[in-house]
Amino acid sequence: MAESLPSLAFLGAGSMGGAILQGVVASGIAVDGGITATNRTAAKSESLTDLEGVTAIALEDQPDGNTEAAASARIILVGVKPAMVADLLREIAPVLREDAIVVSLAAGISLASFAEVLGSDVSVIRSMPNTPATVGKAVTGIAANSAASEDEVAVVRRLFELVGSVVEVPEEKIDALGTISGSGPAYVFLLIEELTKAAIGKGFGEADARLIVEQTFIGATALLDVSGENPAELRRRVTSPKGTTERAIAVLQDAHLDEVFAKATDAALARSHELAAGA
User: What range(s) does the Pyrroline-5-carboxylate reductase catalytic N-terminal domain occupy (predicted)?
Assistant: First the structure.
């Protein structure tokens, strides 16, 4: 792991940009040249002022904040909403350093779209992280354009490894990866919500129901992590022949969860394509 990272600018330190930012700060790594983060409002920027080594800029107070932040940084993370990306790129293009690496956090915006504004000679890397970055447990997919060197990809990989695991994929796989790991935490939280409702339905109070269900999920994933076993094998070990778990699993399998998850991720992928088209 690198002892330090080059200077960073988070343009739009909202939910995802903020998650990465907080994860980097929490890791304790030195950032040569510091970290600058922009947000539209003073209220949002104020929430970042307590983060060590971070200069927070409110665009409502400092309209040229994005260009100032971009001009000073080696790695520029674009964290604004997809519909705002093109305007932001036009704003910062004239001030980018010669060695700048632009990293996109925006779902659905292609490397070609970045090249249209910045030119094909600027190093651009698309990323698809997820919100567990805030606790150092993210999965981030990255895909680089042809201008990005191996060393530049390695620096960005190092950045995201501070907040979890990294998978390098060809660009055509980035949107599909987003439907799995990007949206995936929401699927897990939905399962926890529904199992908690089932526990309440069995007569448990809400506090006990939450404790039982949430710790079961936390414990199961910790066991999966530590054991290194295939989840199907761990499931088999819990599922005694002719036992209670076997009966429950049969009901879940009859619900065709494989088809449900395929349809859900297909729907997410379709929406990603709509976002890319500006819909």
Answer: 8-108
Q: Provide the token pair at 88.
A: 């932001």
- Rounded Cα–Cα distance for residues 7 and 33 (Å): 5
CATH number of 4-174: 3.40.50.720
Cα–Cα separations (whole angstroms), residue 56 to 21, 38, 176: 11, 6, 33
Q: Which of 127, 144, 262, 225 is nearest to 182 (CA)?
A: 127
CA separation for the pair 132, 262 (Å, rounded) = 23
Query: Domain limits of the chain?
Result: 4-174, 184-275
| pLDDT tens figures, 54-80 | 999 999 999 999 999 999 899 999 999
User: In terms of CATH, what superfamily is 184-275?
Assistant: ProC C-terminal domain-like (1.10.3730.10)
Query: Are the beta carbons of 164 and 136 closer than 8 angstroms?
Result: yes
pTM: 0.89
- Sort residue 78 into left (φ over 0), alpha (ψ -120 to 50) or beta: beta
